[in-house]
Amino acid sequence: MIVLLPPSETKRGGGDGPALALDSLSSPALGDVRAELVDELIALAADPAKSRAALGLSASQDSEIERNAALRSAPTMPAMHRYTGVLYDALDVTSLRGTAASRAAARLMVVSALFGVLRADDPIPAYRLSAGSKLPGRPTLASTWRPALEPVLAELASSDLIVDLRSGSYANLGKVSGAVTVDVIAEHEDGRRTVVSHFNKAHKGRLARALSTSRSDPADAAAVAGIARRAGMRVERRGDHLTIVVAA
């Protein structure tokens, strides 16, 4: 099983790994697109005004542009430690030890607007590029990534069950046929149900932790739902789609 995660806008700074080496990352078939985008972000960083427009930043966020300028020289750390925020707080990989940590490292992957798909231990620097960013002179990042990323994801899906926890914009970077998908719904006392927005990330983070550390290796959506239920989640299944139901 592979659990596909979205990245986070916020990223931990620093690191004690060597500078970015694109040829050391997993999924080497993505190397050409990775190199193009890294070089474009570095060049774009020389013009802060254009960078702000392309990346959706304000002047108070110019430190993000500085990160992009240093993409090839900044220290790295494993991808799963680089990303922060609500989902990654709930996942809390830094608390895992022993076999649980090894399982998580093997099962967790992140789909990034800059690097395509990353293994948990792929060493990357801090950067700023979201799936909705519009780089000058380039079509959408989805149209840039799909031709390269979808064959890689299809190859992964040919040997492993994919549980896709990505948000819509990151799912659009590369579709995965046959993946188990998940949403989160809040149920009110009167029975009404509403979509959970911000906190759906926390519930998906808890699910990712349960799946990535489970002793069992599920082969279908029903088995994924079983792991979630054993972790205390209320889950409904319709085919390959799971709904986590939480109290409003």
Automatic annotation (TrEMBL):
Pfam families tied to this protein: H2O2_YaaD
Taxonomic source organism: Mycolicibacterium obuense
Gene Ontology annotations for the cellular component aspect, listed alphabetically: cytosol
A GO biological-process term: response to hydroperoxide
Domain of life where this protein originates: Bacteria
Name of the featured protein: Peroxide stress protein YaaA
Highest classification ranks of the organism: Bacteria, Bacillati, Actinomycetota, Actinomycetes, Mycobacteriales
Matching NCBIfam families: PRK02101.2-1
InterPro entries according to UniProt: YaaA
